[in-house]
Amino acid sequence: MKRISPMFRALVKQKVAKYLFEDDVVMNWSVLKKCILILVLGCAVHLSWLAWDIFVLFSPEYWQFVNVDIVRSQLFLNSLFFFILLFLIYPCYKYQNNRKVESFLPYLAVGIFVFSLCRDAYIVGVVSPVAMIAYVCLVTVGLVLFHRKLVYSMLIPASIFLSICGYLCFIGQLPYSPLFNIQNKFFYNGFWLLSMFYFIVPILAVCMMLFEILLSQWRHREKLIQHLSQIDPLTSLFNRRSINQCLDKLNDAQKNDYAVVLLDLDYFKRINDFYGHHKGDETLIKVSDVLNQQLRESDIVGRFGGEEFILILKNSSLEKAQQVAERCRSAIQQLKILSDEGEIIHVTASFGIAISKPELRPQQLLSQADKALYYAKASGRNLVKCYTIALESNLHAKQVKAI
After folding, report:
1. Whole-model pTM?
2. What is the percentage of the chain residues whose pLDDT exceeds 90?
3. Among 3.40.50.720, 3.30.70.270, 3.30.70.260, 3.40.50.10490, what is the CATH number of 240-402?
């Protein structure tokens, strides 16, 4: 027999984890698919009861602690409920997309399951640990999985039934826990305690497993939402919001100088107009890939909006930032993008650089980089310009001259 390789085992484990915790979120299931889950849980509970019934009937030494006739009736009823719940799985699976069936079948499936558990709760005692733990766990799981209308339509009658049974037991009209022979030394009965423990364990185990899956999926969803709120969906780069947060953190730390580089693709509108928006999107994706390849792992690259990108170069001087920008500019210029007709689409970008200073706030730094970018555009495009006092003077002079 061939051994399964560790790599294959790890791959299977990864696929199962992805299915359970990422792709197939239980809370997103249809109501009938959730019913199937509850029905399987019900079948498992009744199987555990059947195992206990059979064990007791074949163990005469424990008959002194139980009502044997009720154990025999329990064997029949647990078998009946097991097959009914098992049978209901089929219509829940077959009619998942049938709205008419979805309007009544969940009430039938969950109702029978709850009714069977209520009867078992009375048999072992309405205030026994089994009844209380099953009540709390199933209500909690139910409220997570189903609409409140369905849960409370089952919860209210079940609560009334258990309350009436408890009251009638209290006044002596009904025997409390008829399954067991309860005498004065009830809690000293080791068999009763072990039976309670046996009934509790499968319910707790299954409910805890469901809670763990639901909690893991909720945490994964929260991380995914947080990730999506920080990432540009087209280029998978940081978006403007994330970049602003990074700048605020760097400004608060202010341990080392960092450079901000703004770059804008030249004549990008022409690419969209002449070659189509799908080619414009392809250009943005390839430019983002180029920028990622040219930067260090500690640096940050983001899409600042439209065809504008931003680089945050940590622990960088103005000279080093200029070298990085020139390298990026050259790599973008060498990009080979073909139109649908096979024509080469030429892509270039203009860069503006500003270096951090203790007295500058992030928005002021961005403003300086934007002025340098504007100067690069005004000077002929496909250029790298650094913000300096002289550049500020030149810009002011050009603006005055334009007026």
Report:
1. 0.51
2. 35
3. 3.30.70.270
